[in-house]
């Protein structure tokens, strides 16, 4: 009879866990290819097929060579990019490349003004909806610009791709970055445009402030409409380039699926607790049975 009780209890727990252990993963990365957006002056992307076919032994083999600028497509700006003696790519701590996603939606403002710079008020508006920006956040501007990618003329919003003084795209305001650094704790500041500074910057004040504070940037982030403005966890998996000033990154978000098969809702720690129970209870029941 007691054994039946255990089986029933475990079945109920498995039923609860069964519908709920998942989280959704969303890719926030543009393909790295010969259409990748580069800052003007960078060498061209080089993708060379070394082998794509059957070897003499009849085995299928694919191998390629690729050469790319660090600051290309979806990528990380290491703090050293615009500030001396700050972290280069290989020594940015991995824990500084993970954090709660804070997505600042300025699509309407950017549609009206391509030179828009994210303001402190935009952050306060986010906080009025979702509470204080969480510790170690990854804060990314969603200006809607990722939809232009990879059309370089639209992304840089110019007829003269070799002349940065003609660029018009949105970015962060330097005052907003200073506020984020002094009033909140952030791991990465990102944009869906080619630069954390807006296109018309003369002094790259945002890059310099972030570098000075040893905070990384993320540029050309894709697909931001596919994640909630609050509640995701973002990962900036940059290639670990020794002494790099940045590097291509696979940026992605996880979104916990909190709804169980019964429609209950709860957070990830409760899922872990239930999972542990699912494992432990049959073991304890088994040990008790053997002890008898
Ligand atoms: Zn960059």
TrEMBL record:
Pfam family, one: Cyclase
Signal peptide: 1-19
GO biological process: L-tryptophan catabolic process to kynurenine
Transmembrane segments: 264-287
Record keywords, A-Z: Membrane, Signal, Transmembrane, Transmembrane helix
InterPro entries: KFase/CYL, KFase_sf
GO molecular function: arylformamidase activity
Similarity field: Belongs to the Cyclase 1 superfamily.
Protein name: Arylformamidase
